[in-house]
Write a structure and sequence with these properties.
InterPro entries: Efflux_drug-R_Bcr/CmlA, MFS, MFS_dom, MFS_trans_sf. By secondary structure, this protein is mostly helical. The protein has one domain: MFS general substrate transporter like domains (Growth Hormone, Chain: A, Up-down Bundle).
Length: about 400
Amino acid sequence: MNASLSRGRQIWLTLLLGTVSATGPLAIDLYLPALPQMRTQFMTNASLMQLSITSCLVGLALGQLIAGPLSDQHGRKHPLVIGFIVFGLVSLAIAFIHSITLLITLRFIQGIAGATGQVIARAVARDLFSGKKLTRFYAMLNTVNGVFPIIAPIIGGFMIRYVDWEAIFVLLALIGLAIAVAVFFGLHETLPTDQRQAGGYRASFVAMGHFFTQPAFWPMIVATGLVYGGLFSYISASTFVFQSGFGLPPQTFSLLYAFNGLGIVVGSNLPARLAKRYSNRQQLTGLLLAAMGVSAVLLVSLLFPANVWLVIGLVLLMVMLIGALLTLTVTVIMDQAAQNAGSASAVIGLAQNAFGGLASPLAGMSGSSYAAMAIMLFVCNAGAYGLTRFQQRHA
């Protein structure tokens, strides 16, 4: 950790940035148990409801291109505060609409606002840390981040048991506005004025273009996007696979989803524990091979009678590996981005959310079967492994 930060300040920073970076995904996790109820009320089908996930992810992806350059030019703090005020107000507006088209549109705007948390949290961490310290901090950040997938579906599942789905978005509004206040009073600016990028948006887009054209960066950027695509293949399909396909009630599914969230937390901490024995790149290669193997077994299981416990076990292993892989891919990229950390973080977020948005509807093509989800997981892991090997050979 940065020696200039006290232990208490490090803990506060981890908790604050972990919460800030989780708010975009929280906008998805919290309302997942309500999707079947919302589908009935909106009188639509599963694909259109999943499109509300996709539109949020597209917003999260495009929002990176706004928040990243802004934070490099104007500092980290003020873009964060503005982003979460907008996030809170849009979340409140969603609670009062009953049109699937309007829902999809507002979810897109909600994603753009939520992107500020994802991109700037990574940039703040890079402002303060590098090397193994950065790996450890990202692991801690993902641990806090991973708590929300554990508690969010539980909260959402029990909320829809007693109240309508609109209450979930009221809660999201309160969370967004509370974070805006916490950032305003509790986060010091980490990017000094003399280190900010000059030249406006053109210079920022040139910097982002650099990351997409250099062999040291672009394969890993696409690889982290594919890993995230695998994660959202599971997220978008899981509610229909386990509730509609295997017949689990919403509360049971919420607990299962939360347990898998715990798996992500455990996996996110794995790279920090292995750092003394293996480099980040060695870990990345080995864990991608393991992820390919688990997803291959999940594919083969489709040839036999469906077994919910086998699927649950394989999915748990997969999300643990995904948690570790996200920590590793982000660390490898950000550790090379000494300058323009906001732009580098924006490129990561763009790739992750773009691939997540593409994977979500594809994973739902088989309805209540887990066939499409299994295929997407294998394709994403195999693609990420191939790109990682390419980068290691040519960078």
